[in-house]
């Protein structure tokens, strides 16, 4: 969010090296500016790559196995197949011309080197730009050391205009003005500013930390304090490069200038991965020397001192620490003997977060939770790592995993789930409830990724354990797992009684998520087995239960199933109507599995209407969405025969050239464009023109400007009224507005000529 200063030479070198090879690593110590340079390079060369550039920050990853996952996630891939993350990345990039930027590789060097080597070997049009404190050591790598900013080599007595041309002085002045707008390099302070940048050896992070002090200290006072800190570098062991020692001493100096409360919070904040919200910081950092009610004031002080940075997500502030400063804080935490206690508080907080998600995501706050939880996943992985590596805590890991089911059944974190569940099982006694729950999770994941051996073995074992313990709630899960497995394997008739049994058991235990699952997929199975009326009955029950709770995710599945059921009954109008409603719900919740299944159904409907070109375009478009979740329609036997039938019809109706041309048109769409095309809508307003609103939020803002009430908006867009209410709250928060009249005025202002 701050301006970019200098680096013209390095920018030119990086641009040139990226044309000469396919892997460039920017190296240098922490705080030297590798990330900022990489971002600047990426922006300047992205237009060379037909498929754009993708930036992947790896600072949040604490485990080598999460590197491919982080890259896949930034590429918009959701691994619902359960295949290794590296395979997802390679398959996605294989034919693409993409610049892949990997930032902060040093703490996961071997994993990054392995992934990069695999990608470059399999994806001939991909170029990788990496940042690391040391080179990756991969074949073909070019290394560009990132030096500190240039500093004057004398006392700076030349012309002032020439002096402030040095990048180090420009950076200091720019960051100083950020906290003290009146600051400038003048004839009076020029000597002190020169000495300061020389003392800090041009290291950008060190300069920024010092510049943050000009609100309370003059440049001369900062130099005086640095003079008392930096002489420690002139004696004693020197195992680190000199500039790294300079940065360390500068951070030491900044740390000692903090209040005692600021030092404690700095150290305790280091247990977070990525960013966190204020209430998390208050819980983890408060107590034992820091009054919880003052944590916000302490954080304000650390923001002023450039130790923390802030991010705004839909009106919610989150706080982040640079990796170099996080490492320093973590070291201080260990030295103080506080690491175990604070890590436990961190785990306790995210245990609570997962509990709240499990209790609230199927309700009026669903969109809020589906927006929030992805930002919490990095910290949830850290909390799970604590559980599986700390004696006596494995059961908590299983409970946490169970609560966030959508993130391993819907949004594609199967590999992470399998790894944590396996480690938890190894540390659990077979007689505790979490053991049999973990065995079921492994079996259910086997069902979802088509691993019949694992599914059969683990579900059978889980059933034996559940029966022996009288755990009827778990029996419901196991019966549902068998039922959905049979349905996906094209045994709909055999699946129906199992899904009916699970529905009864779920209702006995008042488990809404299970009830909605059983109703939706039981409705699918009844429709595909020819029981059209029974299917509609269950699906209408599902919609009614969803509307009662205020949730919309399962409404999307129910609408999709109603579309397929209508198609089976030769009611093409209803098939299209329900399909489009399903797409709108899936767009609300980012449920690409629903979208993929629905677009295929709409393609079959178009075929039945003899709109063959549109049908083939939708075939290609649906494949785009299936690929984004690492699946294909043919992954599921339930769809294979129907796919063969409808593809044959379109191939008979069109010439080979027309078929290929329309299919390629669909394949060229982005997932978002696919939705617009399937809905027969015009492309949504470009992000740059929406003022920070999402496409749906901007659409709702336009409807507000037309004078529609929330209920009318809900009816127009086929969404729940509570969903419309939530969207309007988000719009008001994002735009800093107070009421609907102001939303209308904002829209009018953007649509006015000129």
Polypeptide structure, described:
This protein has 754 residues and is mainly α. It is built from 37 helices and eight strands. The strands form two sheets. The chain has a five-stranded parallel sheet with strand order 2-3-4-1-5, sandwiched between helices. A three-stranded antiparallel sheet has the order 6-8-7. The protein is globular, with a radius of gyration of 29 Å. The two termini are 28 Å apart.
Count of alpha and pi helical runs? 37
Largest sheet: spatial strand order: 2-3-4-1-5
What are the low-pLDDT stretches, counting only 5+ consecutive residues below 50? 231-240, 683-688
Characterize the biggest β-sheet: 5 strands, parallel
Q: What global shape is seen?
A: globular
From the N-terminal CA to the C-terminal CA, the straight-line distance is: 28 Å
Strand content: 5-15%
Q: Which structural class matches the secondary elements?
A: mainly alpha
Record field, number of beta strands:
8
Binned, the helix content reads: 55-70%
Rounded Rg: 29 Å
The overall pLDDT, averaged over residues, is: 88
């Amino acid at each position: 969010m701050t301006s970019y200063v200098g680096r013209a030479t390095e920018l030119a070198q990086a641009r040139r090296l990226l044309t000469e090879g396919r892997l460039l690593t920017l190296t240098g110590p922490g705080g030297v500016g590798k990330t900022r340079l990489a971002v600047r390079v990426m922006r300047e060369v992205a237009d060379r790559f037909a498929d754009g550039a993708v930036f992947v920050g790896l600072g949040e990853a604490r485990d080598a196995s999460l590197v491919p996952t982080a890259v896949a996630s930034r590429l918009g891939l959701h691994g619902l197949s359960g295949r290794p993350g590296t395979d997802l990345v390679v398959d996605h990039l294989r034919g693409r011309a993409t610049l892949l930027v990997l930032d902060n590789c040093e703490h996961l060097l071997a994993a990054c080197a392995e992934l990069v080597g695999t990608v470059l070997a399999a994806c001939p049009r991909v170029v990788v730009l990496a940042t690391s404190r040391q080179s990756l050591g991969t074949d073909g790598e070019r290394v560009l050391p990132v030096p500190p900013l240039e500093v004057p080599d004398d006392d700076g007595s030349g012309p002032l205009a020439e002096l402030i041309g040095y990048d180090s002085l420009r950076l200091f002045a720019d960051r100083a003005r950020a906290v003290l707008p009146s600051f400038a390099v003048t004839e009076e302070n020029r000597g002190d500013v020169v000495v300061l940048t020389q003392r800090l050896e041009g290291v950008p992070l060190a300069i920024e930390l010092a510049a943050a002090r000009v609100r309370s200290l003059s440049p001369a006072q900062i130099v005086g304090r640095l003079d008392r800190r930096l002489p420690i570098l002139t004696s004693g062991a020197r195992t680190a490069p000199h500039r790294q020692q300079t940065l360390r001493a500068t951070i030491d100096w900044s740390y000692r200038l903090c209040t005692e409360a600021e030092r404690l919070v700095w150290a305790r904040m280091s247990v977070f991965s990525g960013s966190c919200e204020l209430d998390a910081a208050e819980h983890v950092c408060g107590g034992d020397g820091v009054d919880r009610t003052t944590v916000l004031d302490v954080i304000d002080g650390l923001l002023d001192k450039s130790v923390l940075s802030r991010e705004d997500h839909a009106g919610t502030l989150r706080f982040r620490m640079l990796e170099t400063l996080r490492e320093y804080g973590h070291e201080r935490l260990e030295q103080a003997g506080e690491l175990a206690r604070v890590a436990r508080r961190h785990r306790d907080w995210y245990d609570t977060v997962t509990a709240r998600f499990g209790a609230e995501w199927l309700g009026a706050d669903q969109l809020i939770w589906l927006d929030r939880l992805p930002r919490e996943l990095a910290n949830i992985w850290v909390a799970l790592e604590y559980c599986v590596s700390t004696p006596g805590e494995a059961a908590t890991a299983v409970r946490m995993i169970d609560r966030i089911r959508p993130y391993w059944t819907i949004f594609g974190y199967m590999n992470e789930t399998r790894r944590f569940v396996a480690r938890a099982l190894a540390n659990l006694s077979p007689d505790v409830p979490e053991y049999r729950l973990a065995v079921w999770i492994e079996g259910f994941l086997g069902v979802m990724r088509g691993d019949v051996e694992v599914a059969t073995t683990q579900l059978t074992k889980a059933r034996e354990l559940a029966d022996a313990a009288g755990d009827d709630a778990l029996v419901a899960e196991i019966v549902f797992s068998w039922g959905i497995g049979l349905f996906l394997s094209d045994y709909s008739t055999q699946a129906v009684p199992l899904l009916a049994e699970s529905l009864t058991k779920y209702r006995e235990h008042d488990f809404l998520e299970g009830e909605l699952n059983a109703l939706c997929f039981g409705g699918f199975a009844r429709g595909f087995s020819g029981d059209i009326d029974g299917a509609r009955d269950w699906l209408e029950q599902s919609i009614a239960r969803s509307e009662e709770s205020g949730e919309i995710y399962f409404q999307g599945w129910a609408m999709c199933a109603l579309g397929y059921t209508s198609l089976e009954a030769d009611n093409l109008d209803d098939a299209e109507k329900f399909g489009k409603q399903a797409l709108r719900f899936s767009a609300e919740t980012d449920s690409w599995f629903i979208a993929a299944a629905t677009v295929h159904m709409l393609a079959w409907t178009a075929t039945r209407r003899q709109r063959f070109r549109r049908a083939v375009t939708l075939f290609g478009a649906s494949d785009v969405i299936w690929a984004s979740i690492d699946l294909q329609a043919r992954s599921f036997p339930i769809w294979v025969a129907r796919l063969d039938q409808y593809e044959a019809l379109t191939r008979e109706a069109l010439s080979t050239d027309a078929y290929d041309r329309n299919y390629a048109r669909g394949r060229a769409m982005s997932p978002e464009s696919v939705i617009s095309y399937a809905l027969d809508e015009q492309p949504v307003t470009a992000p740059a023109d929406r003022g920070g609103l999402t496409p749906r939020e901007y659409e709702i803002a336009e409807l507000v400007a037309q004078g529609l009430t929330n209920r009318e908006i809900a009816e127009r867009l086929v969404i729940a009224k509570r969903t419309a209410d939530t969207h309007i709250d988000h719009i008001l928060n994002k735009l800093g507005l107070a009421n609907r009249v102001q939303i209308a005025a904002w829209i009018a202002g953007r649509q006015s000529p000129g």
